[in-house]
Structure formats: C-alpha cells, structure tokens
Specification:
- The chain is of the alpha/beta class.
- It is built from 13 helices and 10 strands.
- It has helices at about 5-15, 25-35, 45-55, 55-65, 70-75, 85-90, 120-130, 150-170, 190-210, 235-250, 265-280, 295-305, 310-330, and strands spanning about 20-25, 65-70, 95-100, 105, 115, 135-140, 175-180, 220, 260, 285-290.
- Helix 8 (about 150-170) links the parallel strand 6 (about 135-140) and strand 7 (about 175-180).
- The longest helix has 21 residues, at about 190-210.
- The chain is globular.
- The chain starts with a helix and ends in a 6-residue tail after the last helix.
- It binds 1,3-dihydroxyacetonephosphate.
- 1,3-dihydroxyacetonephosphate binds near residues 292 and 294.
- The site of 1,3-dihydroxyacetonephosphate has 10 residues, from helix 12.
- One of its GO terms (biological process) is glycolytic process.
- Keywords: Glycolysis, Lyase.
C-alpha cells in the first residue's frame, strides 16, 4: 500500500470548497427516484440522467471533488461513446465506486441489518481500479427503535466496514467508511448522539484492530439530528453544536476528512447544517458533503426525463452543488 498516495486522494476528496456527489443509487433506489418524476428506469434513461450530471461543467470542476458510482454506471458510456468515468476525470473530479451489495436481515436480531459484499471484494476492487476508481464506499445501516440497535448489530457492521476498508487500502483505493445511523425513528437528538457515538467508537476500534491506516480513509457519518417522527425537532444551532461534539469525542485527528451523508434531510436543512458545523471552526478535519438526495432531488425534478430539460437539470444541480460548496466553507447565506 502507498499510504502517501491514499492520503493525497483523501485530501483531494475533501479539498476546500468541494465535496462528493453520491450518484450510486442501486437499481431499486434509482427506480424509486424515477417513479417519483414519472420516468421509466431503463438503462438508457439512467445513463442519460447521470450523463447530464457529469456534463455539468461548472458544478463538476468547481464544487464536486468526486463521484460515487454504481457498478452499472462505471461501465457505461455516454451517448457519444465516451466512458462516463472519463467525463468525470475530464472535469477534474475523481471517480469512486460503491462496493457494498446492500443490506440483509441480521439473524437473531429482529429488525436489524448487516451489509453484504465482502465475498470476492479483492477481485472486484482490482477491476474497478483498472477502470479508474480511486475511492470506494461501503454503507452500514443502524436503525434506532425500541430495544435497538443491539451491540451485535453495531459490532458485525463495524467488523465488515473494517474488513472492507483494509481490502480497499490493499488495492490502493481510499475507503469511505459510512456507518449510517438512520434518522427515521421518533427518537430525539440526544438519543441519536448516544447511538452514533457508540457506533463510531466501535467502528474506529475495529479499524484499529484490522490495521486500517486512518490517514488513508474518509469518514462518512450522519449528523446529530432528531428522528424524523420526533415531536421535538432540534434547530440548526443545536444540530451543529451536537454534531461537532460527537465527532470530537469519537473521530481521531489523523482522519484526513469527513463528508456527511444527507440521510433524508431536506435540501436546505442539509446545506444549513453543513454551513453551521463549519462556522464553529477549529476542528482537525475538513467537514464537507457526500450528498445523494440533497444534491439530486432538484435536478431530478427539473429534468423529469426530457432531453429539452437538460439545461434546467444541470442548472438545478449546479445551484445545489454551489450552495453546499459555500456551506463546506461556512460561507453560505440564504
Ligand atoms: P444521501 O445523502 O441521500 O443520504 O445519500 C448519501 C449516500 O451515499 C448514502 O449511502
């Protein structure tokens, strides 16, 4: 492993004013997004939509450091035959790849999930590297509810994240380590903090046990937020203060960068929260975005599957990317 090179890529992924576009929706998830805008999820439509994003020159060269791709997309070519990966590289951004294979029910732990995809991962990573991927993503999912999460779920998911991260580094690919604590429940923000801290602590413990080099990875955590169904919703200042405290408690300073997931926050909340955490300042790591929904909801709506709407879709994407770029520097205003 060339750690200096991994560190260089990790720092480029979280360079000032830039963040990641998570465009790695699985077949099922992209179908859900397309259903919402009345577009059939065909291979060509998925290609056209993603090509529209990757050809958004201003967004891709000024605000986006890298793109997380799904397996289908990394092998796809644009309409004119150029590999989509090349479009990303030509804009000056780094191609990345989601390598987990989704979640499965965790035996003996009703309602809990474990992420699959370790089988043959070394072979898959080598192919993705040859195609141009320089970083990867693996998402673990932890739900909060009555009696959950169990220590079993936290532990097996942390173990898998560390297995994945070690395999990535051996393949000269920067792992994005994503232990997502869901915001779907009716819990308050303090319960989110308590669970997220447990999850982060266990994840870093496993990373150490499996000798993952922290200088060669990116953390993709959830922010400290109230559950969506909670009667009390924490405001922006509280989210920022508790998010920063939670990260300071759990994330070693040697991690080169942190890129948040949006996790179902509204576009504007995701931007406002990122801006507020960055206004606190004085932290050992850059804090930026690795947003899926919060970057793509607006362009999906503007595009709605029509070639005529490509400029409007690109404009909507560029606007969200610009706002999140400003927020990553604590310079966003409404
Ligand atoms: P969201 O920002 O929509 O949560 O997606 C980010 C992601 O990559 C989840 O794995």
């Amino acid at each position: 492993m060339n750690l200096a090179e991994l560190n260089k890529i990790a720092r480029a992924m979280t360079a000032p004013g830039k963040g990641l576009l998570a465009a790695d929706e699985s077949g099922g998830t992209i179908k859900k997004r397309f259903d919402a805008i009345g577009v059939e999820s065909t291979e060509d439509n998925r290609r056209d939509y993603r090509e529209m994003l990757f050809r958004s020159r201003e967004a891709m060269s000024s605000y986006i450091s890298g793109v997380i791709l799904y397996d289908e997309t990394i092998w796809q070519n644009a309409k004119d035959g150029t590999p989509l990966v090349r479009l990303i590289e030509e804009a000056g951004a780094i191609p990345g790849i989601k390598v987990d294979e989704g979640t499965q029910a965790l035996p003996n732990c009703p309602g809990e999930l474990v992420t699959a995809g370790l089988d043959k991962l070394a072979e898959r990573l080598a192919k993705y590297y040859a195609r141009g991927a320089r970083f990867a993503k693996w998402r673990a999912v932890i739900d909060i509810g009555a009696g959950i999460p169990s220590m079993t779920a936290i532990s097996v998911n942390a173990h898998a994240l560390a297995r994945y991260a070690a395999l990535c580094q051996a393949a000269q690919i920067v792992p994005i380590v994503e232990p997502e604590v869901l915001m779907d429940g009716d819990h308050d923000i303090d319960r989110c903090v308590e669970v997220t801290q447990r999850v982060l602590n266990k994840t870093f413990q496993e990373l150490r046990v499996q000798r993952v080099a922290l200088e060669g990875m990116i953390l993709k955590p959830n922010m400290a937020v109230s559950g969506k169904k909670s009667k009390t919703q924490a405001g922006v200042a509280e989210v920022a203060e508790k998010t920063v405290r939670m990260l300071k408690n759990c994330v070693p300073a040697s991690v080169p960068g942190i890129a948040f997931l949006s996790g179902g926050q509204s576009d504007e909340d995701a931007t406002a929260h990122l801006d507020a955490v960055n206004r606190i300042g004085g932290l050992p790591w850059p804090l930026t975005f690795s947003y899926g929904r919060a970057l793509q909801a607006a362009p999906q709506k503007a595009w709605s599957g029509k070639a005529n709407n490509v400029p409007a879709g690109q404009q909507a994407f560029t606007h969200r990317a610009h706002m999140n770029s400003l927020a990553s520097k604590g310079e966003w205003t409404t």
